[in-house]
Structure formats: C-alpha cells, structure tokens
C-alpha cells in the first residue's frame, strides 16, 4: 500500500476548476518533485494533503485512511505532515528555539526540557545552532528557511511538503536550504517538493511530476523526464526554466 494516494481529486475555486482529477500515489520514502507553470495548481495540490485546502470531489488517503474520514482529527493529521512555505512564516516575536519547541510542547505535550534538547539537535542538524536565541529577523533568509524546516521536523513528521522553499531566497542562500532537503531525502523522508530547482530534482527525486492547468500531464524518473519529455508543454516548460 502506498503512503499517500490521490484518487481523482477535483477542486474548484468558485467556478474555476483548479484540480482536474489528480490520481497519483506516493510510496513511503519517495521523493516527488512537482513542477509546472505558475497557476497550474501545484500549491493547491500539496496543501490538500494536510487539509489546508478542501477539495470537492475525490479522495486522498494516507496509510489507506481517507483524510476526510470521520475518525480523522485534523490537528493529529497535520502533526504527521510538515510543511515549508516560500515565505518562511516563522513567529517573529519569539526566538528561533521557541519557534521550534512551541508545537511539540503545545500539541504533543512534550516537556520544555525535552523539546529544547530536540530543538537544539535539529538546529545543529540544519547547521545553525549558534542562532538559537536570536529572533527570526536577525537571521538571513536561508537561515530562516532552515529554521522553518527544523520547526517542521520537530513534530517528527512522516511526510514533508515543500512549496517553493527556495524561491524567495537570494541565489547564494539557495544551496544551504537545498542541502538540508537533500539530506532529508537521503535519510528516507517521504517528500512532495514543489520546486523549479532541477538540479535538486536530478539529484534526489525518485519521480518528477509535471502539472499544467490542474492536471498531471506526465511524470517520470528524473533522468527520463529531462532527457525525453513526452509532451509539447513539458518541453516548452523545460526550455524556459533550464
Ligand atoms: P501554482 O502553485 O501552480 O502556481 P496555485 O495552486 O497557487 O498554482 O493556483 C492555481 C490557480 O488557482 C491560480 O490560477 C490561482 O490564481 C488560483 N487560486 C489559488 N488560490 C486561490 C484562492 N484562494 N481563490 C481563488 N483562486 C485561487
Ligand atoms: Mg504555488
């Protein structure tokens, strides 16, 4: 059984049909890179997985369980699914370490001491433990995004969603974030990554998925996807971004 299954998922924003029947499955430990033109529905799709967006038709299953089932507690669901946004969305008024320990203490009822120990270990893992007691605004964009990743990991998620995590960064900071993501991928995290960083896709993606106008047009392992794109729209897209 796949870890995540999408069955004919449709979503409308008013009259606008943004997801037009997405069917896809993601195995435990798989890394999917989702790419496609702006407005094609990439963010909407991954936000459906942790129910930040509702959909009107179809089903998403995690571990075989419908995420809209009666027995699903949305907070519990979200505690297993980390999400990292383009804008880091850190809490500005508390320290970096507190950003990381807040949810484990509040949602998982972990002791402050334990949460701080884990938080420091995570900051070390993303290479910024010296910054633990600073406020987010005192950090560079790349550092803030690494805090956002550490914050998501503090909940020990089974799935990580990334929505263009490097798009708001200055070029010299992109690699420090991608390197953290590559480590995660190699450690076996199940990841859905919306990104146009095709070097990242080549290096760690198991599959590259191309979306256009609310549909998955094609998908393939990176080598095949880049060397032999099948659809004209995929070729055009690759020509524009590579
Ligand atoms: P992508 O991430 O691929 O750029 P999105 O999923 O953000 O695409 O958006 C897909 C389409 O849905 C876009 O045309 C966007 O304008 C529209 N859209 C996104 N969010 C909303 C919303 N809250 N209300 C109405 N339309 C939206
Ligand atoms: Mg988007």
From TrEMBL:
<feature type="domain" description="ABC transporter">
    <location>
        <begin position="4"/>
        <end position="238"/>
    </location>
</feature>
<dbReference type="InterPro" id="IPR017871">
    <property type="entry name" value="ABC_transporter-like_CS"/>
</dbReference>
<dbReference type="InterPro" id="IPR027417">
    <property type="entry name" value="P-loop_NTPase"/>
</dbReference>
<dbReference type="GO" id="GO:0015424">
    <property type="term" value="F:ABC-type amino acid transporter activity"/>
</dbReference>
<dbReference type="InterPro" id="IPR003439">
    <property type="entry name" value="ABC_transporter-like_ATP-bd"/>
</dbReference>
<dbReference type="InterPro" id="IPR003593">
    <property type="entry name" value="AAA+_ATPase"/>
</dbReference>
<dbReference type="GO" id="GO:0016887">
    <property type="term" value="F:ATP hydrolysis activity"/>
</dbReference>
<dbReference type="InterPro" id="IPR030679">
    <property type="entry name" value="ABC_ATPase_HisP-typ"/>
</dbReference>
<comment type="similarity">
    <text>Belongs to the ABC transporter superfamily.</text>
</comment>
<dbReference type="InterPro" id="IPR050086">
    <property type="entry name" value="MetN_ABC_transporter-like"/>
</dbReference>
<keyword id="KW-0547">Nucleotide-binding</keyword>
<dbReference type="Pfam" id="PF00005">
    <property type="entry name" value="ABC_tran"/>
</dbReference>
<dbReference type="GO" id="GO:0005524">
    <property type="term" value="F:ATP binding"/>
</dbReference>
<keyword id="KW-0067">ATP-binding</keyword>
<keyword id="KW-0813">Transport</keyword>
<protein>
    <submittedName>
        <fullName>Amino acid ABC transporter ATP-binding protein</fullName>
    </submittedName>
</protein>
């Amino acid at each position: 059984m796949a870890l995540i299954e999408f069955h004919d998922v449709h979503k409308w924003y008013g009259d606008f049909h943004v997801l037009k029947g997405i069917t896809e499955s993601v195995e435990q430990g798989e890394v999917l890179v989702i790419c496609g033109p702006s407005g094609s529905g990439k963010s909407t799709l991954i936000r459906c997985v942790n129910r930040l967006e509702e959909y009107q038709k179809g089903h998403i299953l995690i571990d075989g369980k419908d995420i809209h089932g009666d027995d699903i507690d949305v907070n519990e669901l979200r505690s297993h699914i980390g999400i990292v946004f383009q804008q880091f969305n850190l809490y500005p008024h508390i320290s970096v370490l507190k950003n990381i320990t807040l949810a484990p203490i509040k949602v998982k009822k972990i002791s402050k001491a334990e949460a701080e120990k884990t938080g420091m270990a995570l900051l070390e893992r993303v290479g910024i433990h010296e910054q633990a007691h600073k406020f987010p605004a005192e950090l560079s964009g790349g550092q803030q995004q690494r805090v956002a990743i550490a914050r998501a990991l503090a909940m020990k998620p089974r799935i990580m969603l990334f929505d263009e995590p490097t798009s708001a960064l200055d070029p010299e900071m992109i690699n420090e974030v991608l390197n953290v993501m590559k480590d995660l991928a190699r450690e076996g995290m199940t990841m859905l990554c919306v990104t146009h960083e095709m070097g990242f896709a080549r290096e760690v993606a198991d599959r590259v998925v191309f979306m256009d106008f609310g549909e998955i047009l094609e998908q393939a392992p990176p080598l095949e996807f880049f060397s032999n794109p099948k659809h004209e729209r995929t070729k055009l897209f690759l020509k524009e971004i590579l």
